[in-house]
């Protein structure tokens, strides 16, 4: 009985779906290309902005390091070995306290974001998902 | 990419960046989905729902977990949900809210599987038009079970996952579907 029912049901199967398959693929392909384009432009924008931001943030970091006395404390490390051996703990604490944490975090974050967006951009280009779809002309 | 690759292998390739392999899945399942959906909502509306289903599959492919169910089961579950949503919007669905604790008539349970459709009914099944007309008269859930089991050759476990019913309920519904089909063909 089972085989006869299976045969009967397969007999009423609609078979002509080639056009539908092609239409669906075209829609998905278009959406995919659009998504890849959007990803490319967002990654490129973020990469450029973060790169541009690194320069002033680095300048701010250098300024903060100078203001906080970090350079002076660092120079003590090379001044007198006897004092360094005796007061290394205090020097370490002073160095740590003089670090401008916010500037460092900002700078490192921008560098991280820049390299992350660069990595994703390169991966997209290597996978050949972006360049053929972008008409640079 | 070889067209004989399994669904899971294709999905792994897709996730690794070979997006063009999704076309193989479309070619593989469009016909089956169309048949499943067309018997429920009609040929006019079926293409839109098939399209909606496959787009949902594409958007959510990263969420597919092969340990929970086969890809075929997953895709048909999405199709079933899309069909239900469509019918709800169309307000043409009569909700037969079946409980999981359906009372099963002892008469039905006592009929052996081989005797559910006698020979004279099986002969009538060979006529496409008669079968299509009988199928259209069935309740939506019965249509779905028969299409999935006999056309797509899915097991009752898989069908239960798609229809979100326990295994025993699915088997009972299958029996009822066959008996109702028999009634319309008699």
* Helix/strand order of chain A: HHHHHH
Tell me how many strands of chain A there are.
0
Biggest interchain interface, per-side counts = A-B, 25 and 34 residues
What is the subunit arrangement here?
heterodimer
Coarse shape of chain B: elongated
User: By helix and strand content of chain B, what is the structural category?
Assistant: mainly alpha
Helix coverage percent of chain B: 55-70%
List its salient traits.
heterodimer; A: 137 residues; mainly alpha; 81% helix; 0% strand; B: 186 residues; elongated
How would you describe the overall organization of this protein?
Chain A is an all-alpha fold and 137 residues long. Chain A contains six helices and no strands. Chain A has helices at 2-11, 18-68, 70-76, 81-86, 88-98, 101-126. In chain A, helix 2 (18-68) packs antiparallel against helix 6 and helix 3 (70-76) packs antiparallel against helix 5. Chain B is mainly alpha-helical. Helices cover 67% and strands 0% of the residues of chain B. Chains A and B meet through helix 1 and helix 2 of A and helix 2, helix 3, helix 7 and helix 8 of B.
List the helices and strands and how they pair.
The complex is a heterodimer of chains A (137) and B (186).
Chain A: H1 2-11, H2 18-68, H3 70-76, H4 81-86, H5 88-98, H6 101-126
Helix pairs in contact in A: 2-6, 3-5
Chain B: H1 7-15, H2 22-41, H3 46-59, H4 71-90, H5 106-110, H6 119-125, H7 128-137, H8 140-151, H9 156-163, H10 167-185
Helix pairs in contact in B: 2-3, 2-4, 2-8, 3-4, 4-9, 8-10, 9-10
Quick overview of this protein structure:
The complex is a heterodimer of chains A (about 140) and B (about 190). By secondary structure, chain A is mainly alpha-helical. Helices cover about 80% and strands about 0% of the residues of chain A.
């Amino acid at each position: 009985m089972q085989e006869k029912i299976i045969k009967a049901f397969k007999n009423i199967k609609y078979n002509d779906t080639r056009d539908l398959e092609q239409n669906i693929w075209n829609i998905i392909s278009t959406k995919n290309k659009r998504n890849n384009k959007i990803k490319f432009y967002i990654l490129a924008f973020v990469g450029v902005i973060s790169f541009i931001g690194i320069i002033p943030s680095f300048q701010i970091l250098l300024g903060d390091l100078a203001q906080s006395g970090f350079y002076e404390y660092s120079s003590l490390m090379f001044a007198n070995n006897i004092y360094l051996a005796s007061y290394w703990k205090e020097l370490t604490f002073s160095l740590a306290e003089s670090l401008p944490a916010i500037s460092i975090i900002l700078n490192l974050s921008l560098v991280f974001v820049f390299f992350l967006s660069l990595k994703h951009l390169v991966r997209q280009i290597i996978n050949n998902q972006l360049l053929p779809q972008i008409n640079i002309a | 990419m070889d067209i004989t690759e399994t669904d899971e292998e294709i999905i792994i390739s897709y996730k690794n960046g070979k997006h063009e392999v999704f076309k193989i899945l479309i070619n593989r399942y469009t016909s089956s989905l169309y048949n499943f959906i067309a018997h429920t909502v009609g040929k006019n509306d079926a293409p839109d729902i098939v399209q909606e289903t496959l787009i949902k599959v594409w958007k959510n492919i990263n969420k597919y977990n092969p340990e929970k169910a086969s890809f075929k089961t997953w895709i048909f579950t999405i199709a079933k949900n899309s069909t239900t949503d469509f019918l709800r919007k169309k307000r043409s669905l009569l909700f037969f809210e079946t409980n999981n604790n359906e009372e099963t008539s002892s008469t039905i349970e006592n009929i052996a599987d081989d005797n559910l459709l006698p020979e004279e009914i099986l002969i009538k099944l060979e006529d496409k038009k008669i079968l299509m007309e009988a199928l259209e008269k069935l309740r939506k859930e019965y249509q779905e079970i028969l299409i999935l089991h006999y056309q797509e050759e899915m097991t009752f476990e898989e069908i239960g996952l798609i229809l979100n019913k326990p295994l025993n309920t699915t088997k009972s519904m299958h029996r009822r579907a066959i008996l109702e089909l028999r009634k319309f063909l008699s």
